[in-house]
Every structure is written in structure tokens, then in C-alpha cells.
Amino acid sequence: MAIDLKKFVLRFIDEANGHLHIVKEGAFLLSSGENTDAQIGEMFRAAHTLKGGARMLKLQSIADVTHQLEEILSELRDKKLAPDQALGTLILQATDYISDQLAQLSASEGNNQLPPADVALCERLARASRGEMDAPSTELAPAPVENPALTMKLEAADSAVNQASSVRVKLEKLDDLINILGEVVASHDRLEQQVQNLVNLVPRLDQMNADQLRQQIQQFSRKLKEDFQAQNLQMYELYDVATTIRMLPVSMLFEPVSMQVRELAASLNKQVDCRILGGEVEIDRQLIDRLSEPLTHLLRNAIDHGIGTAAERAACGKSARGTITLTTQQDGRGILLRVEDDGRGLDYPAIRAKAVARGLVDADVVDQLSELECNELIFHPGFSTSKIVTELSGRGVGLDIVRKTIVTDLQGTLQVHSRPTQGTTFIIRLPISLAMMRILQFEQQNHLFGLAAQYVVEVLKYSRDDIRDIAGRPAIIRHNEFIPVISAAELLRINERPGSQNSQASAANSLLLIVIQNQFGKMAMLVDNLLDERNMMIKPLPKHMQQQALVSGMVLSQNNQLVSILQVPVLMEMAQKQGQTRTSVPKPEVRQNTWHVLIVDDSLNTREIEKNVLEAHGYQVTLAEDGFSGLQKARLTQFDAVLTDVEMPVMDGFSLTKALRAEENYQHIPIIIVTSRAKEEDRRRGIQVGADAYIAKGDFEQDSLIETLKMLLC
């Protein structure tokens, strides 16, 4: 079945104007000498995305000019060109040309009948990218002449943009909305009648005795409460129905995907099929608009880096045709998207080598990076393992846009799972709507803050005596893992005032902790007071505040106070940096042949805490996230000792210990089990499978761990 490109062109016009606006703003800053590296990076990403969309839709004139524009921005980003007024002016001329092309597209209602690209403009841009700027023209531009045809084109362009911004609504949804509105109006009339009854009651108060007055007040209070509760339910029902009107099936996002996959694969001489599952799931129209760009980047990445050639796949015993699967499903209070390919998987050796080459990781520790840490590196701006720069890859742009859009802009989470030669999966979790979210509100030093409830694991009251000092940081032991504790006042840099609630809380033995998490770990945040948790309408930040990362939006509390919604991923990053600063003490001098220890635990927090403890005493540490991974690493590298948890996926700690003892070179190597399972039968089983020591996390003391290691190694 032939695909109608016209509707995709109309959507492209709307998106392209947004990207063009970013480039124009940056060009004005270039002309005035106020540009920043971040601004140039934004311009480059916008041009890159604009070019990719134009090529997908065969809009060659736009793609050609944008390609040359991208070359200039690439040179600026890499400091090979110096920004100046002439360069800014040339970029503005290119954006004006692209704007005219988009206007022509709109006037033709999406029919692709654009003339070839302006050759002279493309040549000027190409020379500028090589540092060969033309002399600025001194001729005055001719006075504008009113052009009726152009006016008609612009009007058609506005119409096309409005059409792209519209939503088709089913009649039954409108009927539901109108019915509930009728109930809300009737409920409002009842409340208005209650107010009138109160007004009529006031003149008769002096004529009533105490019993009559009490009876009237109770009757009025009961009736008012009933009417208020009814209207409250109607308002939430009204919101639910109103939001469904803006909900669209995710197939609206996935429809162009099969075409994009075929076009990209054909350009690389690859055979790729695209499977779409759950296309009927409905999501907010705003999410559909915002997900288009990151999804495109993930598809390009999968086809270019993930799916191999037919010959390469045949050598691995796979079919010549690769498969990309897009899956959507509702997941609790949000939406789960999976982008999965059956390709090569992530090239971890290449990722480690690139990290060293770019100075992100020291060469002497790069081999100790876990797969989770390598997965994080691929989202770093400018990071690419491609050996050459092509139209699709090698520029280091794409996955950083995916991370920023998903995590920062859409308040979601992004995870990566990869298996060598088997494929890579990107898992995206998003709220159902951006306008309304469930928010947990708390108070710190009389300041009000909120957290998206999707990041909140639990709220705890802990005794001060139960908080331990581990690796120079306070932490609690909860559900078989160490969770670092940090004060919200310290993290948010709120000065504590004498006599404040926090001062009193500091003296108290009971502490209030909010445990939050993202894909990289957990943190317990010490707060003064919890307010409530409810669905709240998110208000966007004013324009002058949108560049800061910590606050994503605002809500109004019940007493009309502004509450700042904090970005949990940013909070976690801030806490990690503070922890690194706090624990970066000089390491004691150790012998030349440093002991090499393998730590195996499925909790990232626990792995990092144990790693900090050992490294502070001069040990070299390698991490593994489960027993199977630990066994594989132990077979590749000879370790002097192994620390392992018990409860882990794939292979538990007892099985790992037994398997290691079956290996000839690990029959006499110290193995220490560190777990929350403190029962005597667990201890006996640990000894039976060959563990040399068994430490319960509830009794964990870092000095005791170090002494145990020293005793077993000597």
C-alpha cells in the first residue's frame, strides 16, 4: 500500500519551523558576538534534525542547504571556525531561504514540488565551512514589493500549520464532555443555592435558640459538604474526559516509521523490517509531538550501528533481514515504549576506547567500567563510536538529544539493555500527560518543593541511630541495599536558621526520609515535613528560567503558594557529585602489588559504596551487577578476592560461590558474602558452598570488612 507523504510533509513543516527558530536565534547571537558553546550545540542539533527530516521526505532543496549549514555549525562547534558577524549574517540568509521553501510547501498543501536548491547559496555556505568567507556585500536590499501571490502562500502556510496543530475528536468523546459539563453546571447551581440559603439565614439568627442554631448549622454543613464532594468528583471526571480528547493513538507517531526504516536501510544496503506492537495505545498529543525527534534518532542509531549487513548477520547465524520492534504499553501510571533491534549490540570495547580518546575516562580504569557505566557514556554530547563521519553518524549528535528530551523535557526515564551479537533495547517510561502529574510535596526551611511521584519509592521515618557512616557518607540499609542519605537543605543549599523546624528535627531522634530513584540508583533525602500527594496541574516556567535544569515546572498549593517541581535526575547527579567531593580523601599508601577485588551486587548503590570503601584503602576494584556477569569476569581476570551479595537476578551469590570454587584458580581465593540475609541457615549454606566469611549488612562496619579482607589475604 502506497504511503501518502502529504500528511507527513504538513507535520514536518510545523517541526521544521521550530528547529529553524533555534538556528535563527543562534545566528542573531553570532552576529552580536554573544554566542555560547551551548547555543552552537543547540543550533547544530536543530540543523541536523531538520536535514534528516527533509531527506526522509525527499525535500532535496531544503536538505542540501541544511547540509551545508550543518557543516558550518560543525566547524564552529569544534572550534575550527571563529564566530563573527559575517558568518551570522550568512546563516540568517540560509534560514530565510529555508523559510521560503517551507512557505511554498504550505502553499501547495504538502505537495513536494520545490525547485532545486540555490546553487550560489550552497557554494557560499560550503566555502564558509572551509573558512573562505566572501566579502560582505555593500549593496542595499531592494525595497519590498507587495506580492499578492506571496501573501496567498503565507496565508496558506498559516492554514497548514493550524491544520498540523489540530486534533480530530470522536463524537462520543464530545458527548461525554458535554454531559459532564452539564452536571458541573447543575452542581454549581446547587452550591449557589447553598450560598443564598446562608444569606437568608443570617437575618434569622437572632430569633433562634442554641439548639435551632446548631441544627441549622449542621444541616447547612452536611449539605455543603455533599455538594462540594459531588462537584469535586465531577471536576476530576471532567479533567479525565478533557484529556482523552487530546489523546491520540501512538500509531500517529509510528506510522511514518516503517517508511523511515526502509529509506535508511536502503541507503546503507541493509535489509530491515519494522514491527509495531501496541499502536492502539493512546497518549497525549504533546508527547507525540515531542517524541518524534528522539524516536527518529533511535531508529537511525539502530539501523546504522545496530543492524549489520546481510553477510555479517549470516556469519552470526541470523537471517539476512534485521528487525526493529517498537512496542507501546500502559505501565501503571505511565506509558512504556521499547525500541528494540536484533543487531550487534553495543560495542563496549569501542565505547571504552572512545571514552579514553575523548578524555572522559582515565586509561588505567577504563577496563573496570561496568556495562551500565558504558551505557551511560553513549548519551554524552558529541560521543560516537563511528569510524567515519557520514550523513547518518559520526557527528556525535542524536542520543544526547534523546536523553535531554526524554528525561529533562518529558519527565521520563531512559534505560539501555544490550547483549553482544543479540541486539540492543531502549526502554522509555513516560507520564501519560504533561499537563497533570501526581506530585509529592514537601517542605524544607519554609520553602515548598515537589517531586514527580513516579520517582518516589517510599517515605520512611528512621531513627538517627540506624543511619550508618559508610565510606564517609551517611547511609541506611533497606531491602538488601545501602542507600545514601543526604539532607535536602544541604543538597538545595538552603541555609539553616537557628530555632527553625530543621534545627529542632536535627535534635530529634526520628528523621523523615523520602527515598527517590532513577535508573542509576537510589537516594534517601532528609526533609523537614511532608505536605501531601495529589494530581496537580503543572505550570511551565517563565522563559527566563527555562535554561536552568533543577526545576521543571511549578504547581499551586492549596493555599495558593508556588511549589517548585524538582528534577529527580538532576538531584541525583548533584548528590553524586557532593558524595564524590566528600569522599575524595587522599588514599593511604599501599604496597606495589595492589590487591584486585571483584564486587558482585545487583544494587548500584551497594556496589558503589563497597567500591569507595575498598578504594579508600588502596584496593583495585572491578564491579559486576549479577552472579552470571561476575562469573564471566572472574574467568577472564584473576582476582585476589571476591565480595558477593546473595539475592541477585540470573545467578545468586550462593550459586556464584559454588561455581567459583569449581574453577581451579579460585579454589583458594577468599570469597566474602555480604548480604541482608542474617538467618543462621543462610550463614550455614554460605559456608557449605565455600564462602570464607559471611557479613550481614545489618551488622556492616567498613573497618570490619577491611580487617576481614586483610586477614584472608595475608
TrEMBL record:
The modification Phosphohistidine is found at H48. SUPFAM superfamilies: ATPase domain of HSP90 chaperone/DNA topoisomerase II/histidine kinase, CheW-like, CheY-like, Histidine-containing phosphotransfer domain, HPT domain, Homodimeric domain of signal transducing histidine kinase. This is histidine kinase. Residues 436-577 form the CheW-like domain. Residues 596-712 form the Response regulatory domain. Residues 1-105 form the HPt domain. It comes from the Bacteria. PROSITE patterns: CHEW, HIS_KIN, HPT, RESPONSE_REGULATORY. Its EC number is 2.7.13.3. Keywords: Chemotaxis, Kinase, Phosphoprotein, Transferase, Two-component regulatory system. Residues 162-434 form the Histidine kinase domain. It catalyses: ATP + protein L-histidine = ADP + protein N-phospho-L-histidine. The modification 4-aspartylphosphate is found at D645.
